Amino acid sequence: MRDAQALAAAGRVEEAVALLRAGAGRGEVDALLMLAAWHVLGCGVARDMAAARDLYGRAAEAGSAAGAQLYLACLVTGSGGPVDWLAAMDLLRARAAEDADAAHQLALLGPMALGEGGAPAMLPPAEALSDTPWVRIVRGAASPAECDYVAALAAPRLAPSMVIDPRTRQSMRHPVRNSDAANFPVLAENAVIRALNLRIAALTGTDVAQGEPLQILRYANGQEYRPHGDYLPGEANQRILTAILYLTDGYAGGETRFTATGLAVSGGKGDLLIFRNTDADGTPDRLSAHAGQPVTAGVKMIATRWIRAAPLPAAM
């Protein structure tokens, strides 16, 4: 679809859209995917997730692996239409013979006790570590196989971590945090990531829509996250909870240490650490300030979900 891109770059957007629509009408995969992406971004056409979902579905029917991945994300997250977990499972099964990742997802989802829409039917208990600040841990919240899968899925997406500038609200590099990170926004979620997000939501007593995109963090030898709070100064929709899923073990150092009380947590692989960042009235709890201590050997990987007071708009 280089012709459409060239037309758009030359300011001839209507012609570019017409070209894509004509190609999509003929079932051309590249046209279907590009037009869907333009609907997601609102580029040249109205931002319309329902239209994007339909186009991704048509690309999947035409045999596109990328279309299938994006259509699956729409089905499991409810982007552009209702959640349809059964259709998502049918799509995975249809692709499993030729798509190793689809087969892997099915193998991981099979042992999960899932209810309607991919939500967990059963939950492990939480253990209290502290009431001031409020800190809990859920042992074995995820299986080792699930942890390995998420870590491997994130590996090619990892890039230097960013922090949010409190003045501009923009992401920026900062020496306080020298790990590597990868995000899984809504259209990057697959069935396994969604099932984990739903499990985290259930374990924290929140709606899955309150969670920011799952972020994977990797700390190698000497890397750390210096003392900080996860609450966002001046933010109306505050981060009320943090959930940290430990994806690896066998490393040294790297404890999650609450600086005001000295509580230090070294979660095992599959454990979920949960703590509150605010008081009941939404005021930032300064006692929740914490640090990711320097890793002294091995590699620490965690999956973090910051949970807001109210649902967030879907991040694509």
From TrEMBL:
Q: Which cofactor does it need?
A: L-ascorbate
Membrane listed as a keyword: no
Q: Residues in domain Fe2OG dioxygenase?
A: 210-309
Q: Which Pfam family is one of this chain's hits? A: 2OG-FeII_Oxy_3
Q: Does the keyword Endoplasmic reticulum apply?
A: yes
The UniProt entry, under InterPro entries, shows: Oxoglu/Fe-dep_dioxygenase_dom, P4HA-like, Pro_4_hyd_alph, Pro_4_hyd_alph_FE2OG_OXY, TPR-like_helical_dom_sf
User: What keywords are assigned to this protein?
Assistant: Dioxygenase, Endoplasmic reticulum, Glycoprotein, Iron, Metal-binding, Oxidoreductase, Vitamin C
Which PANTHER family does the entry link to? PROLYL 4-HYDROXYLASE ALPHA SUBUNIT (PTHR10869), TRANSMEMBRANE PROLYL 4-HYDROXYLASE (PTHR10869:SF246)
Q: What is this protein called?
A: 2OG-Fe(II) oxygenase
